[in-house]
Specification:
By secondary structure, this protein is an alpha/beta fold. It is 39% helix and 19% strand. It is built from 10 helices and 10 strands. The strands form 2 sheets. It has a 7-stranded mixed sheet with strand order 6-2-1-7-8-10-9, sandwiched between helices. It has a 3-stranded antiparallel sheet with strand order 3-5-4. The mean pLDDT is 87.
Amino acid sequence: MKQSYLNDEIISIAKKVYKIDLSGYKPSFIDRRLKLIAMRKGIFSARQFKDLIINSGEFNHYLEEEIPVHVTSLFRDHDFFNSLINHIEDQYNNAGVLKIWHPGCSDGSEVYSMAMLMESRMNHIRYKLLGTDISHESIQAARSGSLNCTNLNEVQSLYRAAGGKGSVREHIISSANSFVIRQKIYDKIRFSRHILGTDSKFTKFDVIICRNMLMYYNETAKENITKDLYDSLHKGGILAIGKNESIHDLEITNKLKMIDKRNKIYQKIE
């Protein structure tokens, strides 16, 4: 395709017609995602793309599902989970209910990973997890409590590497190609559709895990989203953003203490 789909007109139409704001993404990222949509839908010109956005009643759903990047798996980056659960154990004072939020949770794999580790290591305390995502399909998949599992032995190995104790079978009911989270864990998790940086804020959390998502936003949106995450944390709370992220140049960093440089885990100090 010779003509770029990245232009203010397409972004303006998407916002006006569907109330979908694409302006916070980096230009290079949104251009790649729109071109991918165009290829999959057989669109060959920017004009055709704009016509579809305006005239197709279901195109809003396609934009919401295809623009975000959904890369996730159980215990993805086990070193990160191991470090995070150790910091929570060291710092949580057992007062009240420990609340954990996963923005951009995709199909819930990482939320369930965290829940299994919490059940394994800290089941003596009360805890709740919230997973949110812009995608309706992702939230629906997450709420099912069923995840693909082609190799349970591999999942067990990752679970132990992430700091889990005992067997992962204590937390799941397995079948040939999938497993279902046991009810005692499922009852501690809630999934909800939420647009980070746009929708209203939740109540305060003790831990927020927002990994490898900020990199897709421009500096203004990144600053605003990071501020929202900060505001949603209790003082002393933990913010984990992922190894590939960087927030060192943001104003909010002065109010955070780095507690794991490699895994980009911070603590709110103000």
